[in-house]
Structures are given as C-alpha cells and as structure tokens.
From TrEMBL:
It comes from Hypholoma sublateritium (strain FD-334 SS-4). This is Mediator of RNA polymerase II transcription subunit 18. The keyword Transcription applies. GO terms for molecular function: transcription coregulator activity. GO terms for biological process: regulation of transcription by RNA polymerase II; termination of RNA polymerase II transcription.
Length: 201
C-alpha cells in the first residue's frame, strides 16, 4: 500500500446566470457556507523545463492564503500526477502533500529551489459537507500596476471544485473509496443543474 496522502475531487463550471439555483442547491445540502477570497501563487522548480525535456513531470508547488481572514497563514501544497483513469474512472484522485508555513512562504519556496510562475486570485463561496470542501469561485483579474485583484467581469465563468478537505491516507479507517463515494454523492445532487466531472490536471 502506498504511503501517499490523496485528494479525491470533481470539477465543473457554469455561467453567471445559473449562479442562484446552483448556490441554493449547494447551500441546501451543506452544513456551512462562507464567502472567501484567496491568493494562490504557483511555483515550479528552477530546472522544470529540463525535467520536462527528459520526460519527467516536475513537482509544482502552490502557496495559498485566505485574504478574507487577516490571521490566515500561507499554506504550501503540492499535487502529483492524478492516478490513471483506469484505476479511478469516476473522480480525480491525486497524491497530495501540504504544510503550513509561518512567515514568508515565497522565500521558503525560493529556498527550496523554486521560482514563481503565476498567481491567481479567487473569490467566491466555500461550503463544508461532511469531510468535503466545496469551492465555488471566479478568478479575479490582477491589476498590472498595483498587482492587486480587481473584481471579475460579470460574464467570467464560475468554477466549482468538490474535494476532500484534508489529505486522506488510504487505510481501513479512512478508505479512499468512501471519499470518492462522498464526492460522487454531490455529483448526483447537482445533476441537471451542474455537470461535475473528473479531470486530469
């Protein structure tokens, strides 16, 4: 058995005009919801291109911080390549490592030999449903002068991620199978309103 921790997830997107019915249905089937705004910075190793040229996939690091919470610290996490569709045809299952960073996550990533590749601001709603986190958000634009986020255009697509809130070790107490089933339950609940699907990312 692998020593990795995993995330099980499904993804979807929809147009702004469908926001209200989708928001209502997710709220109805969740224990809690709150607005959120986060900043995510994507890093790749200095030799990422060399690794790609030699046929191996570099490990990408992401630093995420909740801007909506003034006390929030940076969280550094990394996903490995999703397991094959043959093994998990219904949901995206990928090895996931995470750690809290006190202080400056950006310097920490640089010390690990990583360079900053891009940044994303997301604003939307976060829902909790049992062991799942459901994120519904639009990506905000970044003002090139101030580097601060500006509100998304009204016609910007909404993105949805339904995923396990914490990394799962595939053990008898926390079988991966039950995490996948929880994610598929949400897929069923949203049927007809929102198409949630597996994706290789």
């Amino acid at each position: 058995m692998s020593s990795h921790s995993y995330e099980a997830a499904l993804f979807g997107e929809f147009f702004s005009q469908d926001l209200k019915p989708i928001l209502n249905r997710i709220t109805l089937h969740s224990e809690s919801s709150q607005p959120f705004q986060s900043r995510e910075i994507v890093f790749e190793p200095l030799d990422a291109q060399v690794q790609r040229d030699s046929g191996s996939e570099p490990i990408i690091l992401r630093a995420r911080k909740e801007i909506s919470d003034p006390k929030a610290t940076w969280e550094l996490f990394s996903y490995l390549k999703p397991e094959s569709v043959r093994v998990h045809p219904e949901a995206t299952v990928r090895p996931w490592a995470t750690c809290q960073v006190t202080g400056d996550a950006l310097s920490f990533a640089a010390a690990l030999g990583y360079v900053r590749r891009s940044q994303i601001y997301k604003r939307g709603y976060a829902f909790r449903r049992g062991s799942l986190l459901i994120l519904m958000f639009q990506q905000e634009q970044v003002d090139p002068k101030t580097q601060l986020p500006t509100p998304a255009h009204t016609d910007t697509l909404w993105e949805v991620e339904v995923k396990t809130a914490l990394p799962i070790r595939n053990t008898q107490e926390t079988p991966l199978k039950s995490a996948i089933e929880a994610v598929l339950e949400v897929q069923l609940l949203m049927k007809g309103l929102l198409d949630l699907r597996r994706q290789d990312v």
